[in-house]
Amino acid sequence: MKSGLFFLLFGLISFGTQAQDLFFYPHLAPLLQQKCGSCHRKEGGAPFELLEYKHFAKRKGFIREVVSTGYMPPWTADSHYRSFANEKQLTVTEKDSILRWLDQGGKEGSKPPKKVKNTVSTGISDPADIELGMPEAYVIPGNNKHHYICYKIPYELPGDAYVKAIEFVPGNRSLVHHASYQLLGVAPGVDHFRGPSYYVFSPDSTERIDDARDFSYFGLIDSAGNYPIPVFHSGYLPGSGKQEYPEGIGFALPRRGVLLIRSLHYSPTPLTATDQSKIRLWLADVPVQRPLEFAAFKPRMAGDTIPADSIRTYVINIRTKGDMSLLHINPHMHQLGKSFLAWALTPAGDTIPLVHIPRWDFNWQEFYRFKHLLKIPGGSIIHAEAVYDNSSANPANPNRPPRPMLIETGSMDDTTEMMRLVFLYVPYWAGDEGVCLE
Questions:
Q1: Domain boundaries along the sequence of the chain
Q2: What is the mean pLDDT of residues 103-120?
Q3: What is the CATH number of domain 295-434?
Q4: What single-letter DSSP state applies at residue 70?
């Protein structure tokens, strides 16, 4: 009798919860702003805003479709293998709540006196301290071809500064596909404002990023032959957003320097268009104690070919030196990518899962942010496996019929293939495991 009564009470409680009326304010706003707002915001990567009720109200049918099918919000990493702080995918409960809210009419509710504060870093909470952008709009040719440029943006500040957050903002959200960029300090005798602002990679070439050529072309080498000093290296990919760092971690921004966008990729367009991309910088009040470091690993082969109608696997095996604490990880492939898996094997024989992308999507990539600083002991083996599908069964294969595809020529052009595993990290300090990145 007792168990039957418990079942009856549990059923009534569950039914009562399901019957609850849901409103955008206060029930859905925090969830939808968190999962949608990182891309769907002003100057974000998506083509329209989804932050306020008015934005959602006119797209209820669209939201029902993309949520019920799982098409949005996009997230390709396997959360069972490694869960990240910036995950966008919806849980079953969250999806049910959104659909139930829509079934009930998608009503607004009572908006609070103050704007609902976003619970994640979306770049909307405060203005940036510095913006470095293209001074004039760049004209993208309407020739239905992929287009690549290298662009120099010089700057000069009153004094040195310290950066605690950075965001690449595409000027043309529909055409900017990805960018690799560096912040560089220049020597006192270098007039970094002189000379050309950009060059265009030759169409259908295998040109690659080359320091000697680029620094010479842009006039960034001093009279003694010294190159500019790199202080930060990162990139923009479809779906990526603002990077924020814990207190004391970041990088020093030299008083005189350049933002050098090493490879800015525009998708094909039949119509002439323009772009004015930029980065936004948030400054720390005190000097950075722990400068960020950047590492990009690739397989030990050069100019290999993925044969037509084949599936090939390439691997990375790198032994680390000192202890490191990871903030972000970014796996990178092009359109033949099928899956990507990475882990670390410690000297003690322990396995540390890093990232798993079971179904690679060239159009949705991310700088995955760990929930806490992740310690990788010195002497660990970083192992990564990337699978490439160069068959006609791969719907993303750019060649019909498939043709042999070069891999790791050093070119950023997506007519060749790449395998990279990127770390953003700092040398390990005791207690880093407790530093939260959420």
A1: 18-103, 130-290, 295-434
A2: 64
A3: 2.60.120.230
A4: T
Across the chain, mean pLDDT equals 86
Asked whether residue 204 carries a pLDDT value surpassing 60, the answer given is no
List the one residue out of 377, 182, 156 whose CA is nearest residue 264.
182
Q: How far is CA 407 from CA 154, 204, 414, in A?
A: 33, 15, 10
3-state secondary structure of 423: strand
> What string of DSSP letters covers 25-58?
BTTTHHHHHHHHHTTSSTTSSSSS--SSHHHHHT
Give the Cα separation of 35 and 50 in Å (integer): 10
- Nearest to 177, CA basis, from 76, 44, 268: 268
pLDDT band at 5 (very low <50, low <70, confident <90, very high): very low
CATH number of 130-290: 2.60.120
Is 353 strand, coil or helix? strand
Mean pLDDT of 263-274: 93
**H/E element holding 64?**
helix 60-69
* pLDDT at residue 68, rounded to an integer: 79
User: C-alpha 418: how far from its chain's center?
Assistant: 17
* C-alpha neighbours within 13 Å on the C-beta side of residue 316: 25
